[in-house]
Amino acid sequence: MPGDANTGLLVTKNRTWQDCGFAYHDEGVSIAWVPSFLFGMVTLFFAMRLATKWIGLSTWGLDDTTITFAYVMMIAFLVAAHLGRQEGFGKDIWTLTVDQITNFTRGFFAFEIVYSVTLAVIKASILFLYIRIFGALTETFRRILWATHIFNIVVCVTFVIVNLNQCKPLSYFWFGWDGRHPGYCIDLSAMALSHAAINIALDLWMLVLPATQIYKLNLQKRQKAGIMSMFGVGIFITIVSAVRLRSVAQFNKSWNPTYEFFGLALWSHIELCVGTIVACMPAARALVRRLFPELLYVTNISTNRTSTRASGNVKIVSQDIATIATDDLPESSTANSTKKDSFATLTPDRVPLRRLTTSDSLLQISPSDRDRSLYGDSQKGSKLSDW
């Protein structure tokens, strides 16, 4: 029978390695500490994000809700990594029992779905952060952000549905390896590679989004670079995703999947951890500024005075919530904007949005210079809010 032949091949392979004295692969030690270390880093940044809410540096938003969900999923990944060791994760497939191989393929099936959902949730958190910061600038850009949201959701839902229907019957995914069970699967290699490629493209797009808005600000290059650097750390997600794409390609060609999966799982875990850290980094920086302001002091910019450069007078306050406001508003609207610690904001079409206290601001126009627009003469009444 084909199943007996497949099992026999594994037994023969194992006997050959024993007789030839080849070293067996076992990543058990790495599985024991690497995921735990990465989760510890994620926990640190996540705790710093929660701390900013606790001490009132910023308010709770949808970006916080989604990243909290992602953090819970990261706990599931950590538990799964340790449980996977018992089913041969990181070991040569020819050293495993039939039950271990079957359980491994079941775990791999679940991994594909959980990974896709967690990655999409992390991206959603970052996009919600963009909406909080840039959503009040222009209606067009806000629509672009929501369109990106929808695309991210569509990609996630599509690949989850494809994963759930990749084999007929579904159980063939974890039983089909032995050759005893009838069924078929779609091209799993093409599916995995296309998902990785789409996510890399989406990562690059999400790097471009904030850059297009920061570039328009009428600020000095150093100030623009400082703001962009807070968003530019997202490039690390793209780099890790690219490395993971290579691991996906290698895994699809593997004749030793239980061992080769270690590399794919490792880079997938790193990608999720880096994404979570990047999503929490602005909040973490805000906390560090509050606790250790001297560590992040910006040369030539003081919280007690304004710069008098040609770009406009900008006062940097210690909090890491970015608010860029202008006072190019009708008299009826600007009457309230002179109140201490608050700004009334209108979109370019003069639709009232909301008021933000200056305790939530990073960049704020000083009262004496409200007639100067950070966007120059091209855009007015804009605001960069809630970091």
UniProtKB/TrEMBL annotation:
Query: How is the protein disposed in the membrane?
Result: Multi-pass membrane protein
Write down the Pfam families for this protein, in alphabetical order. Answer: Fung_rhodopsin (PF20684)
Region Disordered: start and end of each range? 362-387
For this UniProt record, give its keywords in alphabetical order, as a comma-separated list.
Membrane, Transmembrane, Transmembrane helix
What are the annotated GO cellular component locations?
membrane
Q: Where are the transmembrane segments?
A: 31-52, 64-84, 104-131, 143-164, 196-215, 227-245, 265-288
Primary localisation category: membrane
Q: Which family does it belong to?
A: Belongs to the SAT4 family.
Q: Under which name does UniProt file this protein? A: CFEM domain-containing protein
